[in-house]
Amino acid sequence: MSATMHYERELPVIDAGDVLVVGGGPGGIAAAIASARNGARTTLVERFGYLGGNLTAGLVGPCMTSYSLDGETQLIKGIFEEMVNRMESLGGAEHPRNFPAGSPEAGFISYGHARVTPFDPETAKFVALDMVREAGVQLRLHTFVADAIVEDGAVTGVVAASKSGLEALKAQITVDCSADADVAARAGAAFEKGRDEDGLLQPMTLFFRVKNVNNAVVEEYVHSHTDDFRPFESLVMQAREAGEFPIPRKGIGMYRTGEDGVWRINTTRLHRLDGTSVEDLTQGEIDGREQVKALLTFFRKRLPGFENVELLDTASMVGVRETRRIVGEYQLKLDDLATAREFDDVIALCGYPVDIHSPTDDSGGTDGKLATANIYQIPYRSLVPRDLNGILVAGRSLSATHEAQAAVRVMPPVFAMGQAAGTAAALAIEYGSEPRAVPVKQLQEMMVRQGVYLGDKYEKTPAGSHR
Ligand SMILES: Cc1cc2nc3c(=O)[nH]c(=O)nc-3n(C[C@H](O)[C@H](O)[C@H](O)COP(=O)(O)OP(=O)(O)OC[C@H]3O[C@@H](n4cnc5c(N)ncnc54)[C@H](O)[C@@H]3O)c2cc1C
Questions:
Q1: How many whole angstroms from 417 Cα to the centroid of ligand 1?
Q2: What is the pTM of this model?
Q3: Which of 37, 102, 174, 272 is the most buried (most CB within 10 A)?
Q4: From CA 361, how far away is CA 369, in angstroms rounded?
């Protein structure tokens, strides 16, 4: 064990209102907006100077499907769709209805890739900020949450570090959207990590974007090489044999954007790293950048349509697919997704399949090996830590197995979980109850009235029956 020391100081206490949302990614944006719109005084804390998390800082995109697996039924609406529509009105996104499976915007991937949402990350930053501010959320940017404050078994706030120094931010309910369950873990909540057999996590990926790609040449090549499971697979294999492809990937993960010649590249792969270790994150940034350099050389030398490619930008943070998953009141399992289990406390419907990038080799992705239903459900109890009060956890660190998390971790389901958690936090404030005790029927009614789709049997009730 490394050396330790005792450290103690008086902290200024900041009133963060009724609900404190930690992390301004897809989960936190939706949670903060939903909480504030439902009447709770809400503060959103984010470590970067802008909102979006992987949506912006991670350069992750497109948003994976918000539809059923077959692409027929739109499932995720609410705040997610509001944001898409607003981005679209600014020319910074296109509605998913326009993108069938296998489209260049979906990386030419068919299985699970119908109805993706391409968008521009800078537009996402503007729109997220506008929507959060319009809802009346108090923002605290450039603020990293380093610890949890726990009193009588309930989280009552956090310790945050910023240019203003260390501060205690106090609120009645905290919604942990840090993606790593930072607050819940520091507060002592139980969590799991990695796959069952060896605890290994999905690999990290440093996204980057390139410009000057000849779209027509790329699309012609990919469509005429249908034996390649992923784009350019045979060229990747040739380069690997020549010692020119030092990346554990079988093909090129590449997604056409709304700008001519600009593609997002999801191809670096960084194994055996843990996103809750600062040493591993540092290593991921270093190795990720080396892989970007190697890929650019490979692209220019070997890929049709990429002869004049240039780097547009790299992500501001290495992308982390999986870290802590809380032990919640209900753990979502692969079987629930496969059998379309119905939950009385359903808070989201999803269709994206299991997407596990191998923790050790070049295989994986949405290969359909672990089947899921056309439409499956997420229950509210998966956002409620089993043994801790005053807190909800929304986003990729929900209570789920490694396999189930690998399906619901993508951005549209995370927006949906955030909206549920924010609405539930506001409801808990209204009743003075613990999040685990909120009346779920009322929660569902509120969400449906606010644009969420939970299935045809959840019909809209007249406005005004609540709030
Ligand atoms: C490489 C990769 C590829 C992916 N591809 C896709 C894709 O193509 N489409 C798709 O839809 N999804 C994709 N995903 C999944 C998706 O991007 C994430 O799972 C999703 O963004 C999770 O949302 P979140 O809100 O839980 O977390 P995040 O997006 O990670 O947001 C968390 C936010 O919290 C902030 N934060 C974290 N800790 C603290 C702290 N202690 N204090 C203050 N702030 C903090 C972060 O800065 C960040 O803004 C991909 C993910 C990765 C990593």
A1: 13
A2: 0.98
A3: 174
A4: 16
Atom 4 (ligand 1) nearest CA: 60
Instruction: Indicate if the alpha-carbon torsion angle 240, 217, 60, 79 is positive or negative.
Output: negative
**Ligand 1 pocket check for 396: Cβ under 6 Å:** yes
Whether residue 278 sits in one domain with residue 216: yes
Q: Is there a single domain that holds both residue 166 and residue 46?
A: yes
Q: What pLDDT, on the 0 to 100 scale, is given for residue 461?
A: 62
pLDDT of 433 > 60? The answer is yes
What are the C-alpha distances in Å from 441 to residues 52, 80, 160, 393, 445? 30, 22, 35, 20, 6
Q: Give CA 154 to chain center in angstroms.
A: 26
Tell whether ligand 1 has an atom less than 6 A from the beta carbon of residue 343.
no
Tell me, using a 6 A CB cutoff, whether residue 202 lines ligand 1.
no
pLDDT of 465 strictly over 80: no
Residue 466 pLDDT: 44
CA of 322 from ligand 1 middle (Å) equals 9
CA 315–ligand 1 middle distance (angstroms): 12
| 408 assigned to some structural domain | yes
- Boundaries of domain holding 301: 208-314
Q: Are residues 187 and 226 in the same domain?
A: no
Q: Is 410 in the pocket of ligand 1 (CB under 6 A)?
A: yes
Residue 360 within any structural domain of the chain: yes
Query: Does residue 74 sit in the same domain as residue 184?
Result: yes
pLDDT digits (tens, 9 = 90+) for 401-414: 999 999 999 999 99
Q: Tell me, what's the pLDDT at 24?
A: 98
pLDDT digits (tens, 9 = 90+) for 222-268: 999 999 999 999 999 999 999 999 999 999 999 999 999 999 999 99
SS3 12: coil
The protein residue whose alpha carbon is closest to atom 7 in ligand 1 is 61
Question: Token pair for residue 451?
Answer: 């644009």
178 lines ligand 1 (CB under 6 A): yes
Instruction: Give the pLDDT of residue 459.
Output: 74
First to last CA, the chain: 53
User: Is any atom of ligand 1 closer than 6 Å to the C-beta of 192?
Assistant: no
Q: What letter does residue 201 receive in the DSSP assignment?
A: P
Name the pLDDT band for 463 (thresholds 50, 70, 90). Answer: low
